[in-house]
Structure formats: structure tokens, C-alpha cells
Amino acid sequence: MTDEIERRVEKADAEKSARRTAAAREVGELAHRRAALAEELAEVERKLGTVLVAAADVIGIDELTEFTDVPAADLTRWLTAGKPRARRGRPPGSRRPKPETQPETVRAPAPPEPRPGPPTTGIQPSVVHGQRS
Questions:
Q1: pLDDT-based confidence at 58, cuts 50/70/90?
Q2: Which of the chain's ends, N or C, has fewer CB atoms near its CB within 10 Å?
Q3: Would you state the pLDDT for residue 25?
Q4: Helix, strand, or coil here: 131?
Q5: Eight-class DSSP state of 106
Q6: Confidence of residue 81 (pLDDT cuts 50, 70, 90)
Q7: Residue 38 pLDDT greater than 90, yes or no
Q8: Do the Cβ atoms of 61 and 76 come closer than 8 Å?
Q9: Distance of alpha carbon 95 from its chain centroid, rounded?
Q10: Distance CA 60, CA 119 (A)
Q11: What confidence score (pLDDT) does residue 83 get?
């Protein structure tokens, strides 16, 4: 009886293990294929951007859309991606130095003055144990 139970469990585990192996293998192969295709697509888009930038002086997006039936939004995206990016910020060495502060001129802030208001003695809270008065 015990041997029969072991045999059944092993058979069930073997079937499950084979399915798991097949699934993992297929997912791995498809993921690697996807990564290769994504890199190839990125390279084609870079080339499209380069060609669009180089041809911008002789043909515009509107004409390309008309001649190629490629949506203007796609052409514009590739054109924008193909243009070199502008540098941000100031060039090195063009920043003005910060003025130096004298240690003796820095003063600590004065303590706040007390505010006039009603005396607090004899005042009872308006909320006691969750009830309002």
C-alpha cells in the first residue's frame, strides 16, 4: 500500500515537473527573442531619426507622411529622437562665485515675543471624553 502511494506521488510530480520545465524553457526563449527584437527595433528607430534629421532640409514631415503613409506622429517622434540633445545649465567656469559671509555678521534670530491673549487659567476644554459642550 505505501509503495503504491509513493509511486502515484512520484508520477504526479514527474508530470508537473515536465510541465514546469517546458513552461520555463518557453518563457526563457521568448524573453530572449523579445530582448533581441527590442534592441533591433531601437536600432532601426535610431537610424530613422538620423535619416530624418539629415533630410530635414529637403523634405518635411507632411510630405513624408503623404508619400509614405507613415503617421506624422511616428515621424515626428523619430525625428525628435534623432536630434542631438541640447546641453542644460551653464558651461563650466561661467558661474559666479558665492559671496563669502563674515562669521561675525551672522546673528542668531531673536526669540519670539510672547503674544497677548486671554489668560489660560480657569478655561475648560470644549471637548470632554468625545462630547461637545
A1: very high
A2: N
A3: 97
A4: strand
A5: -
A6: confident
A7: yes
A8: yes
A9: 31
A10: 78
A11: 77
Measured between alpha carbons, how far is 53 from 80 in angstroms, rounded to an integer?
8
72, 65 contact by CB (below 8 A): yes
CA torsion sign for 97, 103, 106, 108 is positive
DSSP string, 52-102: HHHHTTT--HHHHHHHH---HHHHHHHHHHHSPPPP-SPPTT-SPPPPPPP
> What mean pLDDT comes out for the span 83-100?
68
Query: Could you give the count of Cα atoms lying within 13 Å of 30 in the half-sphere of its Cβ?
Result: 6
**What pLDDT score does 125 carry?**
54
The C-alpha cell that represents 70 in the structure block: 507613415
Is 110 strand, coil or helix? coil
Distance CA 49, CA 81 (A): 6
H or E element, residue 41: helix 2-55
* 3-state DSSP assignment of residue 44: helix
Give, in order, the Cα–Cα distances in Å from 86 to each of 80, 89, 123.
12, 10, 65
Which three cell numbers mark 109? 534670530
In one-letter notation, the amino acid at residue 90 is R
